[in-house]
Design brief:
2 strands, mainly alpha
Length: 278
Protein backbone atom coordinates (compact mmCIF):
# COMPACT_ATOMS: atom_id res chain seq x y z
CA UNK A 1 0.00 0.00 0.00
CA UNK A 2 1.07 3.57 -0.67
CA UNK A 3 0.46 6.15 2.05
CA UNK A 4 -2.09 8.61 0.61
CA UNK A 5 -0.24 11.74 1.85
CA UNK A 6 -3.16 13.18 3.74
CA UNK A 7 -3.28 16.96 4.02
CA UNK A 8 -2.25 17.82 7.60
CA UNK A 9 -4.26 21.06 7.36
CA UNK A 10 -7.94 20.47 8.06
CA UNK A 11 -9.07 24.04 7.42
CA UNK A 12 -7.33 27.16 6.13
CA UNK A 13 -8.80 30.47 7.28
CA UNK A 14 -6.63 33.08 5.62
CA UNK A 15 -3.23 32.96 7.36
CA UNK A 16 -4.62 30.65 10.06
CA UNK A 17 -4.11 26.94 9.40
CA UNK A 18 -6.14 24.56 11.57
CA UNK A 19 -4.29 21.24 11.55
CA UNK A 20 -5.65 17.77 12.07
CA UNK A 21 -3.00 17.14 14.74
CA UNK A 22 -4.30 20.01 16.84
CA UNK A 23 -7.88 18.90 16.29
CA UNK A 24 -6.94 15.42 17.50
CA UNK A 25 -5.75 16.98 20.77
CA UNK A 26 -9.10 18.73 21.12
CA UNK A 27 -10.99 15.50 20.41
CA UNK A 28 -8.89 13.69 23.02
CA UNK A 29 -9.52 16.37 25.64
CA UNK A 30 -13.22 16.39 24.77
CA UNK A 31 -13.58 12.62 25.16
CA UNK A 32 -11.66 12.71 28.45
CA UNK A 33 -13.92 15.49 29.75
CA UNK A 34 -17.11 13.67 28.71
CA UNK A 35 -16.15 10.30 30.19
CA UNK A 36 -14.55 11.99 33.20
CA UNK A 37 -17.82 13.67 34.10
CA UNK A 38 -19.57 10.31 33.72
CA UNK A 39 -17.05 8.69 36.09
CA UNK A 40 -17.42 11.59 38.52
CA UNK A 41 -21.14 10.75 38.90
CA UNK A 42 -20.30 7.34 40.35
CA UNK A 43 -20.72 6.80 44.06
CA UNK A 44 -17.49 7.52 45.92
CA UNK A 45 -15.77 9.26 42.97
CA UNK A 46 -12.69 11.30 43.81
CA UNK A 47 -14.16 14.47 42.29
CA UNK A 48 -17.55 15.91 41.32
CA UNK A 49 -18.63 16.49 37.71
CA UNK A 50 -18.13 20.25 38.19
CA UNK A 51 -14.60 19.67 39.46
CA UNK A 52 -13.84 17.70 36.29
CA UNK A 53 -13.92 20.98 34.37
CA UNK A 54 -11.13 22.41 36.53
CA UNK A 55 -9.19 19.15 36.49
CA UNK A 56 -9.23 19.09 32.69
CA UNK A 57 -7.82 22.62 32.57
CA UNK A 58 -4.93 21.67 34.85
CA UNK A 59 -4.30 18.44 32.94
CA UNK A 60 -4.33 20.24 29.57
CA UNK A 61 -1.71 22.71 30.83
CA UNK A 62 0.41 19.82 32.02
CA UNK A 63 0.13 17.99 28.71
CA UNK A 64 1.01 20.98 26.54
CA UNK A 65 3.76 22.55 28.66
CA UNK A 66 5.24 19.25 29.81
CA UNK A 67 5.02 17.70 26.36
CA UNK A 68 6.88 20.58 24.77
CA UNK A 69 9.55 20.83 27.46
CA UNK A 70 9.97 17.07 27.43
CA UNK A 71 10.51 17.01 23.67
CA UNK A 72 13.20 19.67 23.91
CA UNK A 73 14.98 18.06 26.87
CA UNK A 74 14.68 14.41 25.84
CA UNK A 75 14.90 14.61 22.06
CA UNK A 76 16.28 17.96 20.89
CA UNK A 77 18.36 19.66 23.56
CA UNK A 78 21.15 20.43 21.08
CA UNK A 79 18.69 22.24 18.82
CA UNK A 80 17.39 24.22 21.80
CA UNK A 81 20.92 25.22 22.87
CA UNK A 82 21.62 26.45 19.35
CA UNK A 83 18.27 28.25 19.17
CA UNK A 84 16.66 28.86 22.62
CA UNK A 85 13.54 30.44 21.10
CA UNK A 86 12.81 27.13 19.38
CA UNK A 87 10.92 26.04 22.48
CA UNK A 88 8.27 28.70 21.79
CA UNK A 89 7.65 27.67 18.18
CA UNK A 90 5.17 24.92 18.95
CA UNK A 91 3.70 25.19 15.44
CA UNK A 92 6.88 23.56 14.14
CA UNK A 93 5.92 20.36 15.98
CA UNK A 94 7.60 18.35 18.69
CA UNK A 95 5.76 16.89 21.69
CA UNK A 96 6.87 14.14 24.07
CA UNK A 97 4.46 11.81 25.86
CA UNK A 98 6.88 11.27 28.73
CA UNK A 99 7.26 15.03 29.18
CA UNK A 100 3.49 15.41 29.01
CA UNK A 101 3.10 12.74 31.67
CA UNK A 102 5.48 14.56 34.01
CA UNK A 103 3.58 17.78 33.28
CA UNK A 104 0.27 16.15 34.17
CA UNK A 105 1.72 14.75 37.41
CA UNK A 106 2.89 18.23 38.41
CA UNK A 107 -0.54 19.62 37.48
CA UNK A 108 -2.29 16.95 39.59
CA UNK A 109 -0.03 17.73 42.54
CA UNK A 110 -0.85 21.42 42.17
CA UNK A 111 -4.58 20.75 41.90
CA UNK A 112 -4.47 18.38 44.88
CA UNK A 113 -2.87 21.08 47.03
CA UNK A 114 -5.39 23.71 45.96
CA UNK A 115 -8.44 21.48 46.35
CA UNK A 116 -7.45 19.40 49.37
CA UNK A 117 -7.68 16.17 47.37
CA UNK A 118 -5.32 13.24 47.69
CA UNK A 119 -2.74 13.10 44.89
CA UNK A 120 -3.12 9.39 44.11
CA UNK A 121 -6.90 9.61 44.28
CA UNK A 122 -6.68 12.11 41.43
CA UNK A 123 -4.17 10.10 39.38
CA UNK A 124 -6.28 6.95 39.82
CA UNK A 125 -9.29 8.92 38.58
CA UNK A 126 -7.66 10.34 35.45
CA UNK A 127 -5.51 7.34 34.48
CA UNK A 128 -8.28 5.58 32.46
CA UNK A 129 -8.91 8.83 30.56
CA UNK A 130 -5.33 9.42 29.38
CA UNK A 131 -5.31 6.70 26.67
CA UNK A 132 -8.06 8.56 24.83
CA UNK A 133 -5.61 11.38 24.15
CA UNK A 134 -2.93 8.87 23.16
CA UNK A 135 -5.33 7.28 20.68
CA UNK A 136 -6.29 10.53 18.99
CA UNK A 137 -2.72 11.87 19.13
CA UNK A 138 -1.33 8.82 17.31
CA UNK A 139 -4.01 9.18 14.66
CA UNK A 140 -2.78 12.76 14.28
CA UNK A 141 0.77 11.43 13.83
CA UNK A 142 -0.50 9.14 11.07
CA UNK A 143 -2.27 11.99 9.26
CA UNK A 144 0.95 14.02 9.49
CA UNK A 145 2.92 11.12 7.99
CA UNK A 146 5.41 11.03 10.89
CA UNK A 147 6.85 8.50 13.37
CA UNK A 148 6.99 5.67 10.85
CA UNK A 149 8.17 2.18 11.64
CA UNK A 150 11.02 0.19 10.16
CA UNK A 151 10.84 -1.60 6.77
CA UNK A 152 8.43 -4.53 6.88
CA UNK A 153 6.94 -7.26 4.70
CA UNK A 154 3.53 -7.44 6.37
CA UNK A 155 0.49 -6.99 4.08
CA UNK A 156 -0.50 -3.68 5.71
CA UNK A 157 2.93 -2.04 5.42
CA UNK A 158 2.93 1.32 3.63
CA UNK A 159 5.23 3.05 1.19
CA UNK A 160 5.74 6.77 1.69
CA UNK A 161 6.55 9.40 -0.93
CA UNK A 162 10.11 10.70 -0.61
CA UNK A 163 9.11 13.90 -2.40
CA UNK A 164 6.84 14.93 0.48
CA UNK A 165 8.83 13.25 3.30
CA UNK A 166 12.50 13.79 2.39
CA UNK A 167 13.74 13.67 6.00
CA UNK A 168 12.25 10.20 6.44
CA UNK A 169 13.88 8.92 3.26
CA UNK A 170 17.31 10.54 3.53
CA UNK A 171 17.92 10.98 7.27
CA UNK A 172 16.12 7.98 8.78
CA UNK A 173 16.29 5.38 6.00
CA UNK A 174 19.47 6.56 4.26
CA UNK A 175 17.92 6.35 0.79
CA UNK A 176 19.67 8.10 -2.12
CA UNK A 177 18.31 11.41 -3.35
CA UNK A 178 15.75 10.98 -6.08
CA UNK A 179 14.18 7.84 -4.60
CA UNK A 180 10.46 7.94 -5.32
CA UNK A 181 9.07 5.77 -2.54
CA UNK A 182 10.30 4.21 0.66
CA UNK A 183 10.26 0.45 1.06
CA UNK A 184 7.07 -0.74 2.80
CA UNK A 185 7.14 0.46 6.42
CA UNK A 186 5.35 -0.57 9.59
CA UNK A 187 2.55 1.99 10.32
CA UNK A 188 3.83 2.20 13.88
CA UNK A 189 1.59 5.18 14.65
CA UNK A 190 -1.43 2.90 14.20
CA UNK A 191 0.16 0.17 16.31
CA UNK A 192 0.62 2.69 19.10
CA UNK A 193 -2.91 4.01 18.65
CA UNK A 194 -4.22 0.46 19.04
CA UNK A 195 -2.00 -0.47 22.01
CA UNK A 196 -1.37 2.71 24.02
CA UNK A 197 -4.73 4.10 23.04
CA UNK A 198 -7.55 1.63 22.56
CA UNK A 199 -6.21 -1.46 24.38
CA UNK A 200 -4.92 0.50 27.37
CA UNK A 201 -8.20 2.44 27.62
CA UNK A 202 -10.28 -0.76 27.67
CA UNK A 203 -7.95 -2.37 30.21
CA UNK A 204 -8.01 0.58 32.60
CA UNK A 205 -11.71 1.34 32.15
CA UNK A 206 -12.70 -2.22 33.02
CA UNK A 207 -10.17 -2.45 35.86
CA UNK A 208 -11.37 0.80 37.44
CA UNK A 209 -15.04 -0.13 37.14
CA UNK A 210 -14.76 -1.82 40.55
CA UNK A 211 -13.25 -0.29 43.72
CA UNK A 212 -9.48 -0.77 43.74
CA UNK A 213 -6.79 0.01 46.33
CA UNK A 214 -5.38 3.53 46.10
CA UNK A 215 -2.50 3.67 43.56
CA UNK A 216 -3.58 0.44 41.81
CA UNK A 217 -5.12 2.12 38.75
CA UNK A 218 -2.17 4.52 38.47
CA UNK A 219 0.24 1.59 38.76
CA UNK A 220 -1.54 -0.41 36.08
CA UNK A 221 -1.47 2.61 33.77
CA UNK A 222 2.31 2.94 34.16
CA UNK A 223 2.90 -0.77 33.63
CA UNK A 224 0.50 -0.96 30.68
CA UNK A 225 1.81 2.10 28.88
CA UNK A 226 5.43 1.21 29.60
CA UNK A 227 4.99 -2.31 28.21
CA UNK A 228 3.04 -1.25 25.11
CA UNK A 229 5.44 1.60 24.28
CA UNK A 230 8.51 -0.56 24.89
CA UNK A 231 7.14 -3.18 22.50
CA UNK A 232 6.14 -0.67 19.80
CA UNK A 233 9.62 0.85 19.80
CA UNK A 234 11.03 -2.39 18.37
CA UNK A 235 9.40 -1.55 15.01
CA UNK A 236 9.45 2.26 15.20
CA UNK A 237 12.31 4.15 13.56
CA UNK A 238 14.20 6.30 16.08
CA UNK A 239 14.75 10.02 15.51
CA UNK A 240 17.54 10.44 12.97
CA UNK A 241 19.62 12.80 15.16
CA UNK A 242 19.45 10.36 18.11
CA UNK A 243 19.41 6.92 16.53
CA UNK A 244 19.68 3.77 18.61
CA UNK A 245 21.23 4.27 22.02
CA UNK A 246 22.69 0.77 22.41
CA UNK A 247 22.82 -2.67 20.76
CA UNK A 248 21.21 -1.32 17.56
CA UNK A 249 17.74 -1.60 19.09
CA UNK A 250 17.50 0.41 22.34
CA UNK A 251 15.67 3.68 21.68
CA UNK A 252 15.04 6.82 23.69
CA UNK A 253 11.39 5.81 23.97
CA UNK A 254 12.40 2.50 25.57
CA UNK A 255 14.85 4.22 27.90
CA UNK A 256 12.11 6.56 29.12
CA UNK A 257 9.49 3.80 29.36
CA UNK A 258 11.55 1.35 31.41
CA UNK A 259 11.27 3.45 34.62
CA UNK A 260 7.50 3.53 34.11
CA UNK A 261 7.38 -0.26 34.28
CA UNK A 262 9.38 -0.22 37.50
CA UNK A 263 7.39 2.62 39.09
CA UNK A 264 4.09 1.02 38.09
CA UNK A 265 5.10 -2.30 39.61
CA UNK A 266 6.08 -0.57 42.86
CA UNK A 267 2.73 1.25 43.01
CA UNK A 268 0.82 -1.98 42.45
CA UNK A 269 2.72 -3.72 45.25
CA UNK A 270 2.18 -0.81 47.63
CA UNK A 271 -1.49 -0.57 46.63
CA UNK A 272 -2.31 -4.18 47.39
CA UNK A 273 -0.29 -4.16 50.57
CA UNK A 274 -2.14 -1.09 51.84
CA UNK A 275 -5.52 -1.99 50.28
CA UNK A 276 -7.12 1.42 50.85
CA UNK A 277 -9.85 1.50 48.19
CA UNK A 278 -10.58 4.54 46.01
Amino acid sequence: MVFPDLDPVALQLGPLAIRWYGLMYLVGFGLAWWLGRARARRSGAAITPAQMDDLLFYAALGVILGGRLGYILFYNVDGWIADPLRILRVWEGGMSFHGGLLGVLVAMWWYARRSGKRFFALTDFIAPLVPLGLLTGRIGNFVNGELWGAPADVPWAMQVSCATHPALCVDKLGLPLGTALTPPLHPSQLYQAALEGLALFVLLWLFSARPRPTMAVSGLFLVGYGAFRFAAEFVRLPDAHIGYLAFDWVTMGQLLSAPMLLAGGVLLVLAYRGKHST
